[in-house]
Specification:
Shape of chain A: elongated
Largest interface: B-C, 25 and 30 residues
Distance between the termini of chain B: 36 Å
Shape of chain B: globular
Number of strands of chain B: 2
Largest sheet of chain A: none
Order of helices and strands of chain A: HHHHH
Strand content of chain B: under 5%
Number of helices of chain B: 20
Number of strands of chain A: 0
Radius of gyration of chain A: 18 Å
Order of helices and strands of chain B: HHEEHHHHHHHHHHHHHHHHHH
Chains: A mainly alpha, B mainly alpha, C mainly alpha
Oligomer: heterotrimer
């Protein structure tokens, strides 16, 4: 793709906005439509676009297979451990009311953390699936 | 704190252990984590079952949301019983696995195996414990997706095509179940099982609910490999790694049967399911044909794993037969056989896994002379085989006893006769292996074959002892099964 | 009886049967998966149209509106979509591996290869 300067320039131009939009969808999820799944996919889409334009090797420099593997697991663990914390504080599994003294704050914090976990895992899984297929020929 | 949150922890601990396995990326560490999580799940299941036997069904509100709105986890007699079975088989297979997967799965994939195993266990436990219809679908897919991966780990390339075939069939099955759940939600406006059951009465005769029931029954029949929807099963069992076969044979189809029982008796209610619709008159012939045809096919298999796989299809027939009697005795027989079959088929597949470890093949001709070379393994095979036939003092006898009793109660003599006759077919396929293993001379130059390592013999031996223990001590299993059956039949009256 | 008032169900049934037919009739493993995906998507549509309330708006509380669509089916289907993505990923990766092992993704050819000793 080295010679397609239009593609390269446009992609470079777009990437920050796609990433920013992903973050917006992620953190605006408690006021409007949005949330971890969608944000994760949008984030991964930006990354996949980067890999398509600038090559797999450059993409691997940004996110190595090991990093993705750790992120995949970490997101899920973040989700599940929020539930464990609420249990330790005396509530049921994922009962966010117990996260803070004020139940409303608790709900806010809980859904934020859980969606963050979802977002991280979804983004990492999507990129891993892409790499899994794209790297296949190189082995 | 642990005690009141046990229903959630039952599912969450194996679920959390899976990503931890991925983090470590090391076969040995992953094994330790997986074993610890499985042991915890077994302990939790036993504790839950004793609680249920003591104080009655337990309900747990996930996220603190009250039942019809939030997701409810519900443990009653049947689900407690199946939880113990699934997690117990998980423990046995995990203890058994190290030596076997070392031979059958590449070293760098071991941590992935443990991760997929844990996810499969999570899914199966989740299906059993949840009281929410949609949750059943989600856990069904978690367990199914991980079992496709587990099957595709097999050495032979046909493992890939069998996993693919299973993926197609399994996805169609679970999508059918999803359609059924969707149509139910459309008519009742709720997903909580108890709530659906309470609201389904006025709309029970509408075409939508009938369609929901039809979709659901076909979908779950694919999942439990009821004849003639069993085509995915023999290949999947034959080419998966041996431990995976043992685990799936002992748990996956059993949990699908659990879903059938749960939906027909708790949600739709026996009156609707078996009197308004001709499901019982449909399930019983299919079960009987399945028993006879699959047992007959089993006799002509060249691979022992395939033979046992076809025998599994036949045994599903027995369980469904018990359910289709729609009587307490029949249902007890079905539930007891669900448990007993898991024990003996698990034992048989573990014995085959020992053989595969030593001779690297499961072809029936390669079993020649193994009676002398691997005496413990083959003895275990014979005991579990006798149980499969239904010889007294083994668990297999107990289940057949209940089934025949249920048939006689209803006055259906031909059914009772067929159950007895089908045991002869089991004699035929078990005897083929026994004859070759004990009475045929081994090929020359095969003296180096020795007994399987103790780490494998012990878990297998535990299962074999269990088949005899529960064959003698019938109160333990049959008592709980009868209580579960009475609860299920009474729940709708 | 008004057969076209429920046009969403006709679309669902059409898609469902299309997908199902592709799964059954095609030999190409990828085409089968595409059929499976169409089949699943029809169920997503069934759920989503179920959640529509006539005159209802997006289910975000706002004092200008008092009728909202039912958000629950959407949430359920979000989960089912993720399941569908995972199924496709597993299915396609199996096909990639099958292609490496057999050098074909046609079911007939795979059977031919298998029958050779």
């Amino acid at each position: 793709m080295k010679r397609h300067s239009v593609l390269r320039v446009v992609a470079k131009l777009f990437l920050p906005y796609i990433l920013l939009f992903a973050l917006y969808v992620q953190f605006h999820g408690d006021f409007g439509p949005g949330g971890g799944f969608q944000a994760g996919v949008i984030f991964a889409a930006a990354f996949i676009l980067y890999a398509l334009i600038f090559g797999l090797r450059t993409a691997h420099k940004v996110a190595s297979a090991d990093l993705l593997r750790i992120l995949m697991a970490a997101g899920l663990l973040l989700y599940a451990s929020v539930g464990i914390v609420t249990m330790l504080k005396g509530g049921a599994y994922l009962d966010y009311n117990f996260l803070r003294h004020d139940p409303v704050h608790g709900q806010h914090l809980g859904i934020l953390l859980v969606e963050l976990g979802v977002g991280v895992t979804v983004a990492a899984v999507m990129v891993t699936i892409f790499f899994g297929f794209a790297d296949r020929k190189n082995r | 704190m642990i005690r009141e949150n046990l229903p959630a922890l039952q599912v969450v601990i194996p679920l959390m252990a899976a990503p931890i396995c991925i983090l470590f990326k090391n076969g040995r560490a992953a094994y330790g984590i997986a074993l610890a999580a499985t042991l915890f799940a077994f302990g939790a299941a036993i504790s839950l079952l004793t609680q249920v036997l003591g104080v009655g069904p337990i309900s747990y509100e996930l996220g603190g949301w009250a039942a019809p709105w939030g997701i409810e986890y519900r443990v009653d007699y049947l689900s407690g019983f199946v939880l113990v079975l699934v997690s117990g088989m998980g423990v046995v297979v995990q203890l058994f696995s190290p030596a076997s997967i070392k031979r059958e799965i590449d070293e760098e994939k071991h941590y992935l195996f443990h991760c997929a195993f844990l996810l499969c266990l999570t899914g199966l436990l989740g299906i059993v414990i949840t009281g929410d219809a949609f949750n059943v679908f989600v856990f069904l897919e978690i367990s199914a997706l991980s079992s496709y991966i587990l099957i595709s780990l097999g050495k032979h390339r046909r493992a890939l095509t069998s996993a693919y075939q299973y993926l197609i069939m399994g996805t169609i099955g679970s999508t059918f179940i999803l359609i059924g759940i969707g149509l139910l939600y459309m008519m009742t406006g709720t997903l909580n099982m108890a709530d659906i059951a309470a609201r389904i009465g006025p709309v029970a005769t509408t075409r939508t609910v009938l369609a929901a029931f039809a979709f659901f029954t076909v979908g779950v029949s694919i999942k439990m490999a009821l004849f003639p929807l069993h085509l995915w099963l023999p290949n999947a069992y034959a080419y998966a790694p041996s431990v995976v076969t043992a685990f799936l044979a002992a748990t996956a189809t059993k949990v699908a049967v659990y879903v059938l029982i749960r939906f027909t008796f708790t949600i739709f209610g026996e009156h609707f399911a078996f009197e308004e619709t001709p499901v019982a008159t449909l399930l019983m012939p299919l079960a009987l044909i399945g028993i006879v045809v699959a047992s007959s096919i089993a006799i002509f298999q060249k691979s022992v794993k395939r033979m046992l796989a076809y025998s599994s299809v036949a045994q599903i027939g027995y369980i469904v037969l018990g359910v289709s009697f729609v009587s307490v005795t029949g249902l007890t027989g079905g539930i007891v056989h669900l448990f007993n079959h898991a024990l003996m088929k698990g034992g048989l597949f573990l014995a085959v896994a020992c053989v595969v470890l030593r001779i690297g093949s499961d072809r029936i001709d390669d079993f020649a002379g193994l009676g002398r070379r691997m005496p413990v393994t083959m003895f275990a095979f014979v005991v579990a085989g006798l149980s499969m036939i239904g010889v007294p003092l083994t668990v297999g006898f107990i289940s057949k006893w209940f089934l025949i009793q249920a048939a006689i109660e209803k006055g259906w003599w031909p059914v009772a006769a067929l159950v007895l006759l089908s045991s002869l077919l089991a004699v035929a396929y078990i005897w083929r292996v026994v004859e070759i293993a004990y009475f045929r001379k081994p090929p020359e130059g095969e003296d180096r074959i020795t007994e399987a390592p103790v780490s494998m013999l012990l878990p297998m031996g535990a299962l074999i002892l269990a088949t005899i223990f529960f064959g003698l001590n019938t109160e333990a299993t049959a008592g709980v099964a009868r209580q579960a059956a009475e609860y299920l039949m009474g729940a709708v009256r | 009886m008004d057969y076209f008032g429920l046009y969403n169900y006709w679309i669902v049934i059409f898609l469902m049967m299309t997908g199902f037919y592709i799964v059954i009739s095609r030999d190409n493993l990828i085409k089968k998966l595409i059929g499976l995906n169409i089949f699943q998507t029809s169920v997503f549509l069934l759920f989503i149209t179920m959640g529509k309330v006539k005159g209802g708006t997006a289910p975000i509380i706002n004092h200008h509106f008092d009728t909202y669509s039912n958000p629950l089916p959407h949430v359920l289907i979000l989960t089912a979509i993720v399941v569908g993505v995972a199924t496709m990923a597993v299915g396609l990766s199996l096909v990639v591996r099958i292609n490496e092992a057999y050098h074909t993704i046609e079911e007939d050819d795979i059977h031919l290869v298998e029958e050779e000793p």
